[in-house]
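Fill in residues.
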């Protein structure tokens, strides 16, 4: 069945679903599905990279705070040279990348990486952050002259500059 027929018959939840799996210049960032959890000791990242060898993955930290995961998935190329008709092509192929900023408490220089069964695991230990110093401020003033009661205070979320 052709691509157009599939779209007309409503077999896709979104009109662009029919084009999933076809390479494009801007694809890649959304092809790395990740989990990020924080424990008391570390930030733990897990990225699904099925069919990717660890030698085809690069993990880098830029400026001590930006984590970058990149690489390339190989697979059957979609081309017109073969004498075949593609009925479905959903597996990701080609280059992939994912970048995001690490939190302030991340010890990026102590990061550990491992890969098993197509899952890349990154463990980034946390440093103890100094708690901000809090000091009390004395509030002065008294009751209003008219009623002898304290004035109502109005709090605003907007302060003009």
């Amino acid at each position: 069945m052709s691509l157009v027929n599939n779209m007309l018959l409503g077999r896709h939840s979104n009109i662009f679903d029919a084009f999933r799996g076809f390479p494009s210049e801007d694809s890649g960032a959304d092809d790395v599905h990740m989990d990020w959890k924080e424990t008391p000791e570390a930030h733990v990242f897990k990225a699904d990279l099925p069919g990717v060898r660890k030698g085809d993955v690069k993990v880098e930290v830029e400026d001590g705070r930006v984590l970058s995961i990149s690489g390339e998935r190989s697979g059957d190329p979609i081309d017109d040279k073969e004498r075949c008709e593609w009925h479905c092509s959903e597996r990701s192929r080609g280059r992939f990348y994912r970048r995001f900023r690490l939190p302030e408490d991340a010890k990026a220089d102590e990061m550990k990486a491992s890969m098993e069964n197509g899952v890349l695991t990154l463990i980034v230990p946390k440093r103890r952050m100094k708690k901000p110093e809090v000091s009390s401020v004395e509030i002065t003033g008294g009751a209003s002259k008219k009623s002898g009661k304290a004035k109502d205070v109005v709090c605003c979320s907007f302060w003009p500059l």
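The helical segments are 3-8.
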